[in-house]
Structure formats: C-alpha cells, structure tokens
Amino acid sequence: MLRTILFYARYLPLTAALTLLAICVPSAAKWCARTWGRAAIHCTGITLDVRLGDLDPNQTYIFMANHQSQLDIPALTTALAPWQIGFVAKKGLFNIPLFGKAMINAGNIPIDRGNRRSAMKSVDKAAERVRAGQSIVIFPEGTRATDLSCLQEFKIGGMIIALKTGLPVVPVTISGSGEALPKHNLCFGPQRTITIRALPPISTQGRYTLKEREIFKEDLYRAMSAAYTEQLNG
C-alpha cells in the first residue's frame, strides 16, 4: 500500500505539469509524452525488460501490442521512444479536460467505437498520419485483458489501418503489466518486471489486400499468441 501511495503522490503532480506544458507548448508535446512515460515507470519501481530485435529507428512502423494494464502505455512509450509513437485510443479519453488536448498534441489518435461512420473516419486519419511518417501503437484486443493466460480476440479496425498504409507491422507482446497493475485496480501487485518483446516486422504490402483483412487478423493473432505463450513459459 505504501508503494501505491508514494506512486500517486509523485505521478499525479508530474502528469498535471507535463499535461499543461504539452498544451501550452505543442511543439514539446512529444517530449512531454516520453518524459511522462519514463517518469511514470520510474515511480512504480518497475523494471522494463525490452528486446526489440533489429528494428530500424528510421522506419515508420505500426506496432500491434496486446493490452494488459494501464501501465502498458508508459511502458511502450518508454520502450519505443526512438519512434516517438502515438497511440490509437478510445475517444472518451480525449474528452477529459486538458488531458485530451495534450493527447492530441502528442500525436495520439481518437477512435469512436460507438459510431461506425466516425470510427471509419478515424481509421482513415490514422492511416494518413502513418503514411506521413508517424509510427503508431494499436491494441488490437481493444481493451485490457483480465485473463492473462491468453490473448483476447482481435478487433478488425487495426488491421484496416495497417493494410491501408501498406507499412510494416511489428507485433509486440507484453507480459507482467497485468500482474503489476490489474484491470479495475488502483493498487499495485507484487510484480516488478514488465517484459516487452518485438517480433520481426510483417510486410503487408503485396501480401494482403484490404479484402483479406480477416486473414491478416487471424495470421497476426496466431503469431502473437504463440510468442505470448512462449514468453509466459520462458
């Protein structure tokens, strides 16, 4: 409990300060996001065990990651700092006063899951952002998992974004974050390490068409599920 209290005592003022800076100085928003990610992980006392293979820091990627915890965001922001990533996230987060504006300035993209037409516009916007050189992170499960023994079913929206851009997709598996801070819980668990592994990039161009998005989704799920299971047992 003391660990949790100390975390929020440091984390909340830090988040408020960086949020205001990202709003007042939009050009500093990405720096604020990276600083927030590193500081948030530091405040938890958690260690990141990151292996990204031979990813090119100069290449634009679409990162597809499983989702266990709120800690996934600062952990991935820190692990993927060379790409200055933005997240595709539910629209409700962007409606939070001040924080939502800071998220937009930092390059994150809202998706309205409750409105199909609006969601498709958001998908097109995300694809346009990626084609312009912005690497993004998509959680294809759509929400945080409660059963950490396996991956949840993937949603199709992330597949459409990837296939519309034709850019490489990097599957990323995360473990440990769900035990460190479980869904619907504000208190930290005993887990002190979050493991992040990147699989080799998948070239979608010429391999899948937009009509084959379900096939791509199934292939991606199988690859990530196998890697995730191996990670848990490793």
UniProtKB/TrEMBL annotation:
It comes from the Bacteria. Pfam families: Acyltransferase. One of its GO terms (biological process) is CDP-diacylglycerol biosynthetic process. Residues 61-177 form the Phospholipid/glycerol acyltransferase domain. One of its GO terms (cellular component) is membrane. The HXXXXD motif is essential for acyltransferase activity and may constitute the binding site for the phosphate moiety of the glycerol-3-phosphate. NCBIfam families: AGP_acyltrn. This is 1-acyl-sn-glycerol-3-phosphate acyltransferase. It comes from Desulfobaculum xiamenense.
